[in-house]
Each structure stands twice: as C-alpha cells, then as structure tokens.
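User: Here's a structure from my thesis project, written as structure tokens. My advisor, Dr. K., wants to see whether a designed sequence matches the one we expressed. Can you design one independently, without my sequence as a hint?
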C-alpha cells in the first residue's frame, strides 16, 4: 500500500521553518540592509502626507495663531514684535494694509519659534496660510524621524524604531500641532533633537569611561573628558528649545542630570573608587560647561535682532542692551508666575493622563458641504485615544519596573526602560508644580514622543524575546499586529476631526467619548 504524501510538513517542521525564516529576516545583514533606510523613509513620508495635505485649511488664524503669526511677521519686518491695531486678523486673511506700528509689544515667549514661522511666511506672503504653518509642519514631520532614530538607538531594533515612528506619525495631537502655527511643535522638535544627541554622547562616552587601559586613568577618580562633541550639540539643541519656550529649561536640567548619573554608573562599572564624587565634582563641571554654555549662547543668539534694534519692548530700559534684556526677562517671569486667568479649555497637568479636556483649535461651519442639513468642521487636539491611554499605561509599567529594580537592587534593564521616563519627567512633572496656572492639554505634544517610545518598548516585550518558545513569539507578534491595525483604524476615524473636514454633526459627536471633549 502506498502511503499518501502529506501536502504540508508536520506542524513542528512548519514552526521550525517559520523560526528560521524569521531569524534570517531579522538577523541577516543582507536582508536588513534595505530596511535601514527604507523603514524611516516610509514612516517619514507617511508623516509628511498627513501633515502637509490641505495645510492651508482653515484660511484664518486659528486659536493662538492670532499671536504667533502676527508676531512672526512683525519680527520679519521690524526685527522685534511690534504693536498691532484693530482688525489685524481680518487684514491677514484679505491682505489689506496690515495695521502694524513700530511700538514694541510685550511678548512673553522667546523669538526663535516665531522666526521659524516667519521663514515660511516670507516664502508665501503674510496672507498665505500654508506659509504660516509650513515650518511647524516640516518640523513636525522631522520629529517623527527623530522618534524613529531615538527608539532605534535605544533598542538597536529597526522594528521598534518603525513602530514608535508610526505611532507618532498617525497620532492626532502631533498632527494637529504640526498643522497649526503654534510654538509647541518646534519646541518638541528641538527637545527630541537634544535627546538624540544625548544618546549619541552616551554611546560614545561610556566605553571610554569604562576602559581600563590607555592614558592610565586615576583609579580614585577616573577620566575627565572634555572631548564630547555630541554633548555640545545637545546643548545647542536644548538651547534652541529654550529659545522657543522657556519650558525647554526643564529638559535641559533633566538631561543634564541624566548625563551626570550615567557618567557615575559608568565609573562604578569601571571600578573607580570615588565614582559618585568624580561624576559630580570632577566630570560634572566639565559636562556643565559643554552642555549649558552652548545652550546659553544659542538662547542669546536668538535675541540678536532685538539686541541690535532700538524699538523692542523694554529695549530702552537701560543703555546696556544685555541689562535691558535682563529687565525684559524679569517682566516675562512675572507674567508667567502670575498667569492664573481662566480659559474654557484650560486643563491642569493632573488631568492630562486622563485626557479630560482637549483643546478645540478651530470650529467652523461650511454651508452644507457634507450632504446633510447640519454639518460641523472642527480641529481638536484629541490624540488617538488608543495610543494615548495605552502609552500612559506603558509609561506607568516602565516606572514600576524602575522602582522594582531599585528596591530589589537588580539591574534596571538598560536605557530603553529609563530614557523615556527621563523625557517624560522633563516634559510633564514640572507642570504639576503649577496647579493654578492657566495651561492646556496640547502642551502634552512634547510628551508624546517619549510616550510612543515607551509604548514601542513595551510592545517589543509583548511580542516576545528571541529565546522565547516559538508559539509564545507567534502569539505576541499577532497581538502587537492586531493592536497596531486597530490604532490605524482609530486614526482614520479621527482624521476629519484633526484636519477640520466638514462632517455631519452626529458623526462628530461619535468622536467625543468624554464630556470634556466637546
């Protein structure tokens, strides 16, 4: 009797072949060469499409664009923020004579972000809404690429970097803030650029600190390193963040502390006897000079036009322009400290993880373009709810892992578990100290990159490790793929609410899952 030939190999053989193919794709450098450039290219292109299509809509100043667009154009014309007369918003739309005087206006944010907006306006003219938003859209797109680079640097994985970049590319908060001429998008870009440079410095410096040969380092103190170009670059980037909004100072302080801690731990691994003292009092001052001095210089350079002109606010408060700038900064600080005015979209920082009060950036109503009697067009800073809530949970999980490692005195698990928490500490914790201040949920756009990186790291753990049984890896990978598929569907559902597409009123209501979202 002839035995039938099976059409498929036994299940065990199929699993073995699947595992070999999977490992070949992930590990073979010839297979991995194309994704090294292809994956970030695709993710960045996706981000660009979602941020640049119909960028000029709405053709009017939306929310705080009424401040930053006008200030940007004033910077371009005068070199400082002048005073605008009545009906200035309408004049921008219709390109009537712009009611701008050369009397300096009191403005509470540094000029760099507005200079970037002004560059786009210089290309398109003051009435071109694409020009208003071009800089923030391009920087928002570049931020997605930076997320990929940071996640890949942390984990060494193209897949994790691609997942993190894709999550930010399709997230509504990032999309809205990239399509609106506000300062928080450029702030996020420079924060993340500085974070990437800090990682480059870490990867370059730690092997040197741990090296026992060459130059005969002092066993009591270890080496003192001055040649740290990536630390200088991080200082420039974080200084630029401060030159967009003062909240960049929190990131400068947080990453500076991170640098000191990682230096100390590297010295301990190298056997340096006085490793905490060496990191704080020998290498610490050097690192301060390399990080903070370039940051301060970058910040000061951003005020150049105010310094060399005579009409800016408080410019004549002292013959010495630097003292006049100091006087201006004292006035700005007094404003920020006393900012307690109410606002219908104000949201204290404790509410942010729960997503209780997003900001309606723009609400319009077109004459029946959607085929029903009652239509509405809205631009809201609601993130993709699935990305947001699961990312917050992932960050809490990483924090739990960190605390458990500290209590049990076990290894933390590498920078992939700690670095996102440093970024979140820099972009979220300081706001908790000002519960009475008028702040908004869209400030969390600076948190979003670190949240999606934390989520991508946790998804990697869910997908399984290489040494896990194959069935466990298959189950984990399917779970992650299903989650990512649902994320994309939710983003497609919310995209009209992020871009101001006119939709039926009942359809818009389906997007408001909590009372505060309306």
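Assistant: Designed independently from the structure alone:
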């Amino acid at each position: 009797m002839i035995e039938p030939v099976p059409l498929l190999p036994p299940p065990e053989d199929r699993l073995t072949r699947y595992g070999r193919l999977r490992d070949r794709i992930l590990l073979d450098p010839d297979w991995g060469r194309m994704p090294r450039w292809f994956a970030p290219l695709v993710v960045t292109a996706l981000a660009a499409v979602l941020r640049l299509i119909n960028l000029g809509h709405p053709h009017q100043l939306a929310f705080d664009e009424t401040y930053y667009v006008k200030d940007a154009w004033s910077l371009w014309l005068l070199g400082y923020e002048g005073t605008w007369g009545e009906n200035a918003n309408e004049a921008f739309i219709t390109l009537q004579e712009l009611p701008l005087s050369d009397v300096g206006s009191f403005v509470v944010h540094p000029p760099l972000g507005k200079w970037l907006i002004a560059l786009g306006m210089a290309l398109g003219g003051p009435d071109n809404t694409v020009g208003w938003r071009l800089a923030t859209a391009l920087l928002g797109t570049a931020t997605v690429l930076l997320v990929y680079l940071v996640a890949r640097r942390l984990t060494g994985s193209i897949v994790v970097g691609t997942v993190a970049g894709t999550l930010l590319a399709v997230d509504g908060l990032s999309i809205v803030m990239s399509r609106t001429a506000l300062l928080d998008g450029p702030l996020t870009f420079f924060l993340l650029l500085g974070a990437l440079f800090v990682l480059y410095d870490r990867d370059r410096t730690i092997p040197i600190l741990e090296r026992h040969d060459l130059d005969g380092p002092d066993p009591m103190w270890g080496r003192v390193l001055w040649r740290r170009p990536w630390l200088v670059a991080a200082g420039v980037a974080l200084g630029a963040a401060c030159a967009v909004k003062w909240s960049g100072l929190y990131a400068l302080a947080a990453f500076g502390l991170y640098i000191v801690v990682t230096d100390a731990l590297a010295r301990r691994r190298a056997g340096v006897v006085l490793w905490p003292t060496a990191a704080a009092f020998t290498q610490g001052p050097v690192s301060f000079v390399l990080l903070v001095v370039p940051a301060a210089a970058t910040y000061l350079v951003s005020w150049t036009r105010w310094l060399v002109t005579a009409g800016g606010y408080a410019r004549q408060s002292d013959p010495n322009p630097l003292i006049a700038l100091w006087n201006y900064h004292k006035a700005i600080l007094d404003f920020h400290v006393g900012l307690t005015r109410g606002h219908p979209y104000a949201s204290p920082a404790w509410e942010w993880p729960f997503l209780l009060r997003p900001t309606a950036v723009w609400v319009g109503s077109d004459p029946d373009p959607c085929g029903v009697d009652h239509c509405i067009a809205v631009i809201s800073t609601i993130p993709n709810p699935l990305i947001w809530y699961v990312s917050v949970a992932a960050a809490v999980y990483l924090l739990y892992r960190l605390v458990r490692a500290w209590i049990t005195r076990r290894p933390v698990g590498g920078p992939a578990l700690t670095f996102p928490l440093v970024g979140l500490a820099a972009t979220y914790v300081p706001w908790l100290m000002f519960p009475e201040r008028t702040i908004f949920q869209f400030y969390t756009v600076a948190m979003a990159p670190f949240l999606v990186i934390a989520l991508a790291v946790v998804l990697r753990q869910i997908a399984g490790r290489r040494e896990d049984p194959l069935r466990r890896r298959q189950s984990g990978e399917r779970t992650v793929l299903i989650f990512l598929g649902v994320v994309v569907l939710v983003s497609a559902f919310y995209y009209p609410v992020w871009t101001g597409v006119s939709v039926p009123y009942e359809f818009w209501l389906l997007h408001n899952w909590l009372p505060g979202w309306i």
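When you compare it with your expressed construct, this may help: The radius of gyration is 26 Å.
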